[in-house]
């Protein structure tokens, strides 16, 4: 009871002063008891200007048992025990000491007292359960009882030494300190045994607050608190690993649920909530300085332009990943308060380095999946996500370092204790440079996904172009429109290029140019091949020109300047043949001026395979001069 009351009073100390509520989570229960860590998280939200999206259930799990409100009557009894009852409990010892002193038997009393009292300092005497066979949940359940018992024992011994006469009949200060060391060793062994089973951040927070409370009280009792601080600092690395594991699981969940569609922002409030806090508005503008995001404004650059809502941003799941990363860092900072805040910046950079590696691994796995499934839309969104995610860690590093500088709380004097070596060196610029290198690896995923997109588009285009094997190069009549393979190809490209709309402008246009150049070269190879096209007549050339005209119209319809020029070398061969202008064909100067992309060797190859129409075909297909007849002597 004495220990529980003292620990609860320490919790009360944590809550005095400022309003503990965060202004960014109005749904949070204002009656929730706070801790140093929760206070830090609330301040963090205020400095960030956004919510960390922490559930009340998460925060409630941060509270150790001694901070959880109990029955008021029981609390009142414990408080009376600490205030008034302590002296009443000590009075019988005081009387006994006087009696045995008068009888000159203090040594006998001391021997009896130590024999009876010293085992009570053993942690295992404070609970009825077998501590060696507790699971992690049982350990956390009994932790408040253990802590209360240990603290209560040494408060009693301290009070006896300070207040009674004939204290030579009690445990000496050295013996009390030895009992304290014994209790701490038992507690340390128990915590280290169960450390691997702590599976949620709340478990670590409960341990932190319990050990921190013990440290403060042991410092007031002039007992050695340094082993507790050492034990607290041993929790930092497993806690960091647990946060990273939870972050990886959250990232996988977010990315697996991705619909591979751009993010729609419905209002300016949403824009300021989801985009601005993560610095993504700067990334959006830097990626597309010329048409920025036509998604965002339809006015070119986003600066000084009033945005129209709803907006479509090419970010998909990036903001959600960003807030998960921000929450990860905030939980790390909160844990470091009053333990090792001096090294906080270095540790946060380590966390950001590791989390960037996690993002990279998941993106690579998704990219391999997109390659296996030939999923162009998935590859396109991975490409977009990777380039914007590459900006997140450095954006957040600057933001978090600034917030840590401005966090306002009184660092406990016990946290100034250093077990040796002082705080580790921290150089912000070198840490930022290391983080930038990690982010560059995400940009490499952008390059790989871009190459995969080009490859998948070319492969699909090749499958559709395979339909050219059914083309009749010496048809008996003129087609009314493009060949079926060409219509299928255009329909596929139209849908595919729409799916690439979320890509940065340069990459989107490069995909168009790469694909259309590939299509042109493939058609050229088919036409010039002796195997697939051993001979060709004017109707075959005319039908092929209709395919090329349709592809050129598709290029012009895309709105990308000069895209249609991808077909120049093919269209100019067909044009010069169909115009049947002998003078231009035979005049090198005029030919190079009017048909600059024309390769004379390709033209000769076509002429060598050219066959005149039969008389019946000429009569059937010629109306006026629509179907020219080449002079084979050319």
Keyword list:
634 residues, mainly alpha, rod-shaped
How would you sum up this structure, described in words?
This protein is mainly α and 634 residues long. It has helices at residues 2-15, 36-48, 56-60, 72-102, 106-117, 136-163, 173-194, 201-220, 226-234, 236-256, 268-274, 280-287, 293-296, 318-336, 344-373, 376-389, 392-406, 428-465, 484-499, 505-528, 538-557, 568-579, 582-586, 588-594, 600-609, 615-621, and strands at 263-265, 311-313. It has a two-stranded antiparallel ribbon. Helix 8 (201-220) packs antiparallel against helix 9, helix 14 packs antiparallel against helix 15 (344-373) and helix 21 packs across helix 22 (568-579). The relative contact order is 0.06.
| Count, helices | 26
Percentage beta strand: under 5%
Main sheet? 2 strands, antiparallel
Q: How many strands?
A: 2
Concise account of the structure shown:
This protein is mainly alpha-helical. The protein contains 26 helices and two strands. The model is unreliable at 16-24, 26-31, 289-305 and 419-423 (pLDDT under 50).
Write the layout of secondary structure elements.
Blueprint: H1 2-15, H2 36-48, H3 56-60, H4 72-102, H5 106-117, H6 136-163, H7 173-194, H8 201-220, H9 226-234, H10 236-256, E1 263-265, H11 268-274, H12 280-287, H13 293-296, E2 311-313, H14 318-336, H15 344-373, H16 376-389, H17 392-406, H18 428-465, H19 484-499, H20 505-528, H21 538-557, H22 568-579, H23 582-586, H24 588-594, H25 600-609, H26 615-621
Antiparallel strand pairs: 1-2
Helix pairs in contact: 1-4, 1-6, 1-8, 2-14, 6-7, 6-8, 8-9, 10-14, 10-15, 14-15, 14-17, 15-16, 15-17, 15-18, 16-18, 18-19, 18-20, 19-21, 21-22
């Amino acid at each position: 009871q004495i220990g529980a009351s003292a620990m609860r009073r320490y919790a009360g100390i944590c809550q005095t002063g400022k309003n503990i509520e965060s202004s960014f989570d109005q749904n949070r229960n204002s009656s929730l008891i706070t801790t140093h860590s929760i206070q830090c998280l609330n301040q963090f939200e205020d400095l960030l200007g956004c919510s960390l999206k922490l559930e009340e259930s998460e925060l409630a799990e941060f509270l150790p048992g001694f901070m959880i409100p109990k029955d008021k009557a029981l609390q009142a009894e414990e408080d009376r025990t600490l205030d008034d009852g302590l002296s009443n409990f000590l009075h019988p010892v005081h009387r006994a000491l006087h009696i045995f002193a008068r009888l000159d038997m203090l040594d006998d009393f001391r021997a009896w007292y130590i024999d009876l009292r010293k085992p009570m300092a053993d942690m295992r005497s404070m609970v009825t359960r077998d501590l060696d066979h507790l699971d992690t949940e049982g350990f956390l359940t009994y932790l408040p009882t253990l802590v209360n018992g240990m603290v209560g024992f040494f408060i009693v011994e301290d009070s006896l030494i300070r207040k009674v006469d004939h204290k030579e009949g009690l445990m000496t200060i050295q013996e009390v300190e030895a009992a304290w060391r014994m209790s701490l060793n038992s507690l340390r062994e128990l915590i280290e045994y169960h450390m691997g089973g702590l599976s949620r951040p709340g478990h670590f927070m409960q341990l932190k607050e319990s050990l921190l409370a013990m440290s403060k009280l042991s410092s007031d009792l002039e007992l050695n608190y340094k082993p507790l601080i050492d034990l607290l600092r041993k929790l930092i690395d497993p806690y960091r690993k647990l946060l990273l594991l939870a972050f990886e699981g959250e990232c996988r969940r977010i990315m697996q649920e991705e619909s591979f569609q751009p993010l729609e922002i419905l209002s300016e409030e949403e824009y300021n909530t989801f985009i601005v806090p993560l610095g993504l508005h700067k990334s959006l503008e830097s990626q597309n300085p010329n048409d920025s995001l036509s998604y965002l404004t339809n006015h070119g650059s986003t600066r000084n332009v009033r945005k129209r809502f709803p907006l479509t941003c090419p970010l998909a799941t990036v903001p959600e990943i960003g807030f998960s990363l921000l929450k990860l860092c905030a939980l790390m900072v909160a844990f470091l308060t009053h333990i090792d805040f001096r090294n906080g910046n270095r540790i946060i950079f380590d966390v950001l380095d590791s989390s960037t590696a996690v993002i990279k691994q998941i993106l690579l796995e998704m990219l391999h999946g997109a390659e296996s499934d030939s999923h162009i839309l998935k590859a396109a969104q991975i490409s977009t996500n990777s380039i914007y995610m590459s900006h997140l860690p450095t954006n957040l590093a600057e933001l978090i370092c600034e917030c840590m500088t401005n966090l306002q709380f009184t660092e406990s004097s016990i946290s100034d204790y250093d077990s040796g070596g002082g705080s580790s060196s921290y150089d912000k610029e070198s840490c930022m440079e290391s983080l930038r290198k990690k982010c560059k690896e995400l940009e490499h995923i952008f390059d790989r996904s871009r190459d995969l997109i080009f490859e998948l588009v070319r492969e699909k285009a090749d499958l559709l172009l395979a339909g050219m094997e059914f083309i009749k190069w010496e048809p008996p009549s003129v087609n009314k429109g493009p060949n079926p393979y060409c219509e299928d190809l255009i329909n596929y490209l139209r849908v595919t290029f729409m799916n690439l709309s979320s890509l940065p402008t340069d990459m989107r246009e490069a995909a168009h140019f790469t694909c259309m150049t590939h299509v042109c070269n493939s058609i050229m190879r088919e036409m010039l091949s002796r195997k697939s096209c051993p001979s060709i007549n004017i109707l075959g050339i005319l039908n092929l020109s209709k395919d090329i005209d349709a592809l050129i119209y598709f290029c012009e319809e895309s709105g990308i300047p000069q895209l249609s020029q991808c077909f120049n070398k093919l269209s100019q061969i067909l044009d010069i043949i169909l115009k049947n202008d002998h003078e231009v064909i035979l005049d090198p100067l005029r030919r190079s001026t009017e048909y600059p992309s024309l390769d004379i060797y390709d033209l000769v190859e076509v002429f060598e395979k050219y066959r005149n129409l039969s008389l019946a075909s000429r009569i059937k297909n010629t109306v006026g001069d629509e179907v020219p007849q080449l002079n084979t002597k050319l």
